[in-house]
Amino acid sequence: MSPRVTLAVAGRVLTQLRRDHRTMAMLLVLPVLLMSLLWWMFEALPGDTFDRVGPALLAMFPFIIMFLVTSVTTLRERGSGTLERLLSMPLGKGDFLLGYALAFGLVAAVQSVLAVSASVLLLGLEIQGPVVLLTVVAVADAVLGTALGLLVSAFAQTEFQAVQFMPALVIPQILLCGLFVPRSGLPDVLGAISDVLPLSYAVDAMRLLTATSDTGEVWNDLLVVCAFAVGSLVLGAATLRRRTA
């Protein structure tokens, strides 16, 4: 791997994204719109429903969007033969995946800053911990979605197949992360599965930041999310194919 080559790949991806206005709008604006819709839904209801479910969905929306966009974009590169041409040059699989991760990670950072800022400053989401740490967790979760999207692109053969991985990798995490039933209240088997799903730790970190100013457990959860993201990138680099069979 070469830092120069990796940065060149990242620059190429960012250039493509800048020219794709619809994708950029979905990446940057959609999470803010979804959080705003969520706030609007719960505004007239009694209680603090938005403060209860908002942190979990603030973790989920960037994760889901980055997963979909990254997996489909990478499959498009391979299906069009671009990846095969790139890898015929002095470019390793690690350079390719890390370059994509850096580019989408930068977009994820901007996306998360916008979503967190809108949720806290405009929509009134109550938090006890530092806003900066809340943003870091949101960024890490979006990067996790990027890493899993890159991993999926190594196994899927078409863009449609990449989307089909969502029920297998994303929806179980949404169901078991504690959004619908507290993780402590899950049956033993489902609780054990929830303990090995990275989105569970992202949601836990978000909820801790809204409930307490003690950030010790938040850093532990953040470390788990980052470890899953790195592991997904490494596995993706090991399994990435040059072209679709």
Oligomer, anyone? single chain
Form type: globular
**Rounded mean pLDDT score:** 83
H-E order: HHHHHHHHHHHH
Regions with pLDDT < 50 over 5+ consecutive residues? Answer: none
Helix content: over 70%
Please outline the major beta sheet: none
Based on CA atoms alone, the radius of gyration comes out at 18 Å
| Helical/strand content category | mainly alpha
Total strands: the figure is: 0
Percent in strands: under 5%
**How many helical stretches?**
12
Distance separating the two termini: 25 Å
Task: Reconstruct the topology from this structure.
Layout: H1 3-19, H2 21-28, H3 30-43, H4 49-79, H5 82-87, H6 93-122, H7 131-153, H8 159-169, H9 171-176, H10 188-194, H11 198-211, H12 216-239
